[in-house]
Amino acid sequence: MATVSKVTGGTAGHPSTRRKPYWVENTVDFSLFDPAANDVVQMLNIPAETLIINAGIEVLTASASGVTLDLGDGGDVDRYIDGLDSTSTGHGAQVANASNVGHVYGSADTLDVKVLGAQDTSGKIRVWALMCDISGSDETASNSS
C-alpha cells in the first residue's frame, strides 16, 4: 500500500477573508500513475480549525472493472464516501451516518481517496469539499465579569 500526494491548497490559513464557507476541489487522472488497491491518494489539504460541511467525489472517467473508492481523512478512511463504484461516471452518495454531518478538524489533515478492489489504470475523479474557517477571530475573554 502506498500513499501518493496530489494535494492542492495550503495547511495554514484559509482562502476566505471572512468567516464564510468556501469551495475547494481537485481533479486527478489515475491513468497517469495507476494507483494500486489499498493505495491512499491525498487530494486536498485541510487547515487546522476547519469545519468540513460536506465532501464528495465525482467520477469524470470510469475506472477499470472492480475499482471502488473511499473518501475520508487520517482518522476515518471512509468518513464521507464508503465503497463508491467508480466504474461509472457521476457523483458518489455520501455516507449516511452521524459521523459525516460536519466534521471539525482541530489540526491540519488531508482529504484522502483510498483505492479499493483493483488497480485503477483509467479513472479520473474530482474531489470537492465545502469548508469553513472556525478559528477564533477574537479569542480573548469578552465577558469576564
Question: Could you walk me through the main structural features you see in this protein, from its secondary elements to its overall organization?
Answer:
This protein is mainly beta. The protein contains no helices and ten strands. It has one domain (3-8, 20-133): Sandwich (Jelly Rolls), CATH 2.60.120. The protein has strands spanning 3-8, 22-29, 40-46, 50-61, 68-72, 81-85, 90-91, 103-105, 109-116, 124-133. The strands form two sheets. The protein has a five-stranded mixed beta sheet with strand order 1-3-9-5-6, with no helix packed on it. Strands 2, 4, 7, 8 and 10 form a five-stranded antiparallel beta sheet that branches. A hairpin with an 8-residue loop joins strand 5 and strand 6 (81-85). The chain is elongated. The chain starts with a strand and ends in a 12-residue tail after the last strand.
List keywords for this structure.
145 residues; Jelly Rolls; 5-stranded antiparallel β-sheet; 5-stranded mixed β-sheet; mainly beta
State the gist of this model.
The protein is mainly beta and 145 residues long.
- The assigned structural class equals mainly beta
Contiguous low-pLDDT stretches (5 residues minimum) are none
> How would the global form be characterised?
elongated
> What's the level 1 CATH class?
Mainly Beta
Radius of gyration from CA coordinates: 16 Å
Largest sheet: 5 strands, mixed
In percent terms, what proportion of residues is strand? over 45%
Helix share, percent: under 10%
User: How many strand segments?
Assistant: 10
CA-to-CA gap between the ends?
Answer: 56 Å
- Determine the number of helices (DSSP H or I, runs of at least 4 residues): 0
CATH topology: the name is Jelly Rolls
The H/E string reads: EEEEEEEEEE
User: For the largest beta sheet, what order do the strands appear in spatially?
Assistant: 1-3-9-5-6
Taken together, the total number of domains comes to: 1
What value does the average pLDDT take?
86
CATH architecture: Sandwich
